[in-house]
Amino acid sequence: MDTEVQQTERDRSSLPGQPGTEGRSRFALPSRITAWVPGGRITLTVLTGLLFLLLVNAFVAQPFQIPSGSMERGLRIGDRVLVNKLAYRFDAGPRRGDVVVFDGTEYFGHADYVKRVVGVGGDHVVCCDRKGRIEVNGRPVDETSFLYPGDSPSTVTFDVLVPDGTLFVLGDHRGRSSDSRDHLGAPGGGMIPVGRVIGRADWIAWPVGHWTRLRRPAAYARVPAPRSTGADAHG
């Protein structure tokens, strides 16, 4: 009698839909994968983590190392900034004052660059007014909060109208920056197409002691809209 009872219980446990069999089937595929991958579960975990980082790096955020002093004092040589690659996917695009990383191929050189946006499509950018300040759409911009100490806004005079879909960019360390001013006579007139922007630099991520969020300076908040448009979509 006892033998018959035990056999019945075993039969029930193997029926489809029983809790025990569901649990085993749920983990069957991962178990097979870990058995196939050399190193088992640890290797699979590492590979999954690497895949996640690659996807984040490709579509969400990407670290960039600062190679020169052109953006001092805010960004120093060797700093690593975290670039937000989704910053302009769902809004009007780069705004005046943003620090952006862009592909300078055919415009600045075969490399990625980091600069500050001074003018956007439709803007009239002039240097300099009677007090030595850059003007955007007739409004002088006080750059003292981010300009490298001792630098003037520019030793090069210019008077440019930024074409739609492009950006006029400058480094914060004007004395050490090769930027839109240096390419005014080149193809493109020193302007960078918005489509070449990789993303907005939002954080200094390394070194830890220099960890800072990069914010848009208030100096650009009062710049009026270009005269050719009815509203300032770029802020």
Structural commentary:
- The protein is an alpha+beta fold and 235 residues long.
- The chain has 2 domains: 2-58, no CATH class; 61-220, Umud Fragment, subunit A.
- The protein is 21% helix and 23% strand.
- The protein has helices at residues 2-13, 19-26, 28-36, 40-59, and strands at residues 61-65, 80-84, 99-103, 112-120, 124-127, 135-136, 139-140, 158-161, 166-170, 192-193, 197-206, 212-213.
- It is globular, with a radius of gyration of 28 Å.
- The relative contact order is 0.16.
- Mean pLDDT is 80; it is low at 1-18, 20-27, 49-59 and 229-235.
> So how many helices?
4
The CATH architecture term of the largest domain is Ribbon
Largest sheet: 8 strands, antiparallel
Order of helices and strands: HHHHEEEEEEEEEEEE
Q: Give me the secondary-structure category.
A: alpha+beta
Q: In CATH, what is the homologous superfamily of the largest domain? A: Umud Fragment, subunit A
In helices, the fraction of residues equals 10-25%
**What's the level 1 CATH class of the largest domain?**
Mainly Beta
Q: Note the overall shape.
A: globular
| Alpha carbon gyration radius | 28 Å
Percent strand equals 15-25%
What is the averaged pLDDT score?
A: 80
- The termini sit apart by 86 Å
State the total count of DSSP E strands. Answer: 12
Which stretches are low in confidence, meaning pLDDT under 50 for 5 or more residues running?
Answer: 1-18, 20-27, 49-59, 229-235
- Domain tally: 2
What would the CATH topology of the largest domain be?
Umud Fragment, subunit A
